[in-house]
Amino acid sequence: MGVLYQPDPDRHLAVITIDRPEARNAVNGEVAQGIEDAIDQIEADDSIWVSIITGTPPVFCAGADLKEVGSGNARALNTKRGGFGGIVRRHRTKPIIAAVEGPALAGGTEIILACDLVVAGSTASFGLPEVKRSIVAGGGGLFRLGRRIPYAIAMEWALTGDGYPAQVAFERGLINEVSEPGQALERAKVLAARITANAPIAVQLSRKVMIEATYLDEQEGWASSKSAVANVAATKDFHEGVKAFIEKRPPEWSAS
């Protein structure tokens, strides 16, 4: 089917599933467009605050469909706004968690690097093996990996093309949690619930500042933070958060 989209408005959560198990969930044109379309729906739906991207077991994503690449259809693996897989260059405001079971190699790792948080089963593996096929990783992996793990380790991954297990990726800082095999999606949902317990606009603006300001100098970082503080202070949820604290009750977020 390519991609499954399952929104759960009551939990403010949506799950995107890469569903090509017969091809190890490799990205073809249908998958790329399906992921972009799902993100479009998430961004447009005020009831969805967080999403999870996963793959039909036993593989998260084996990267690009090399049969499609070999037949001259490489461009189909990229969407106009999202780039590879419809996600690696996609501008968005809401957090995405990757829930990984099995290999997430090559373009699969690049999809991971386009997400905000990662939960992986203990049998998951990661890597950029493109050099083993005389290919250069072109989906953002070569500049994003060194921002997520130490530079020297990222260089080793890029130049050797070796794969690395979930525990190693966790120790290097690439992923947030290692779960028991088969439990990555459920653990990602628990993490999502910890996020959706918070005010959605404040979450989105906090994410924005983290992305924009982490590598800025302090002056620009202060400006970015100040803008986010002012924007969230103008929302109904800002006043609700303060009121709920004073009244000693759980806040009721409106995403406005």
TrEMBL record:
<dbReference type="GO" id="GO:0016829">
    <property type="term" value="F:lyase activity"/>
</dbReference>
<keyword id="KW-0443">Lipid metabolism</keyword>
<dbReference type="InterPro" id="IPR001753">
    <property type="entry name" value="Enoyl-CoA_hydra/iso"/>
</dbReference>
<protein>
    <submittedName>
        <fullName>Crotonase/enoyl-CoA hydratase family protein</fullName>
    </submittedName>
</protein>
<comment type="similarity">
    <text>Belongs to the enoyl-CoA hydratase/isomerase family.</text>
</comment>
<dbReference type="Pfam" id="PF00378">
    <property type="entry name" value="ECH_1"/>
</dbReference>
<keyword id="KW-0456">Lyase</keyword>
<dbReference type="InterPro" id="IPR029045">
    <property type="entry name" value="ClpP/crotonase-like_dom_sf"/>
</dbReference>
<dbReference type="InterPro" id="IPR014748">
    <property type="entry name" value="Enoyl-CoA_hydra_C"/>
</dbReference>
<dbReference type="InterPro" id="IPR018376">
    <property type="entry name" value="Enoyl-CoA_hyd/isom_CS"/>
</dbReference>
<dbReference type="GO" id="GO:0006635">
    <property type="term" value="P:fatty acid beta-oxidation"/>
</dbReference>
